[in-house]
Amino acid sequence: xxxxxxxxxxxxxxxxxxxxxxxxxxxxxxxxxxxxxxxxxxxxxxxxxxxxxxxxxxxxxxxxxxxxxxxx
Length: 72
Fold this sequence. Notes:
Number of strands: 0
Oligomer: single chain
Shape: globular
């Protein structure tokens, strides 16, 4: 887990993403850009990473952190 994961978890908007699914919700997973890819199967429906405060504050690039396991 990244050092500022707890702070990122509370700021992230993963749960508002169209790709976020019931599996993610039940497991409480989010803030993928700060932690690691989702353990659930994710379908690429649409990505909102670029509009997330965590994404902007950490100068991230790319999208679908929930699938690709990239982050800071």
